[in-house]
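does this look right to u?? adenosine-5'-diphosphate version
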Amino acid sequence: MASTASVTPDTLAAIDPRVAAFLKRCPTRLLIGGEWLAARSGDTFESFDPSTGAVLGTSAAGDRADVDLAVIAARRAFEDPVWSGMSPHDRTRLLLRIANIVEANLEELAQIESLNNGAPLSFARAMITSVVDTFTYYAGWPTKIYGETNPSVPGILNYTLREPVGVCGQIVPWNGPLSSAAWKIGPALACGNTVILKPAEQTPLSAIRFGELLIEAGVPPGVVNIVTGMGETAGAAITDHPGIDKVGFTGSTEVGKKILAASTSNLKRVTLELGGKSPNIIFADADLDAAAATSVQGFCFLSGQICVAASRMFVHESVHDAFAAKLADSLAHFTVGDPFDATTTMGPLVSREQFDRVTSYFAIGRADGARVAAGGAAVDRPGYYVQPTIFAGVSNDMRIAREEIFGPVTVLIPFTDEDEVIALANQTEFGLAAAVWTRDLGRAHRVARALKAGTVWINTYLHVDLISPFGGYKQSGIGRELGRHSIDAYTEIKSVYAKLD
Ligand code: ADP
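got this back:
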């Protein structure tokens, strides 16, 4: 059982005065065409501090009318020579300025993120560092977006150009609000697109502060627009808007399907990064201590609210009980507590809705006959805290083994041989990530090939690097983000034929 942190003034970080000032003025505005505008309807909505349930801030509830304005601004900016004619070198400088200004305001942004989504502050700092890294990485790309010359017939010169797609709607979730926005905005701007960002309704605040910083960094008006609001209104208006050329989405598979359907109205380009139910396979010869310590991170990082969570653990029957004991032991060193407490390794879930969802699976698992090996209840304190939870005696067809819970919950399923476990691991509608733990090199790579997943880890978990593609097989998504794959996703290819005589 994980311990609960005792909060003392010594371990609790102080709220940065800039954060306090931001929350006090909390702009209920949308960023459209470089201006801060109230929603046309005048509507607003509240977001909450999940560690207490208290209201944290108020944001403008944008909807279709605001998206219409944002599309006009984004189209104008897309066609404006200030942006369309910007040299690749200047685009690089602009992206570096964004990276630098985020870095200079890292603590402020991390605190807003942590207060709004419950991530431990140390993790939130790491997430904002990854925003800096993302803009720095994509700053290198504008000068490297090459076309090709092709060996066409004599008398013809054929070459290709990579051009921006146009106006891009980018809809992001609450678990990594700014980091998932950066994964989309970085490559979009590197390729010369313009953007309409819709943050999740649970976590709109960091995007607004980020928007202020973008203006300070000199991003031309209309190049990045930010429309806060609900998914069914602001989000849906983006997905079926005829003036938007591409949608990039990270979120649930359920909403991803709606987005794909809505985007057919004008055949938008679509990239989707969706849910997962990732298998984590522990063979008998694995380093069980390392596997247990890392696997705990795999299912508890960000309170399990990550799409790659290690939520299905297949353990060879000969080491099942030993691994289960080590996993529970590693969990005991995991500290659930206030996100601003330096000793905390797991904060609350993001919202009341998510709390209700995760706790309902505690009952579902028990009713299906699984045994709670650790946790299995809410934490008795204010806010949306639950205990990290391990279910044992699970079969792959139970709901807790099939459905994405999005909380710190994992299941242990015993297996006997390699072929069996590959079949079980792939027996899922998802295919985002997977991991294999073994000291047998041949087996490690054999299993990595056989697993149907966009990312496979060998003797590790959670490593994601900007240089490598990220995305899902099956219902975990369409397309890939990061590395040069995002450059492909944010460009159209034009083939030019020139007659030479
Ligand atoms: P999660 O399950 O992680 O909350 P969702 O898929 O519900 O993820 O939400 C991710 C993002 O999608 C959020 O910004 C949300 O507002 C948005 N969204 C939700 N429903 C829709 C919809 N019907 N159309 C477009 N965007 C939506």
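The first helix runs from residue 17 to 25. idk if thats expected tbh
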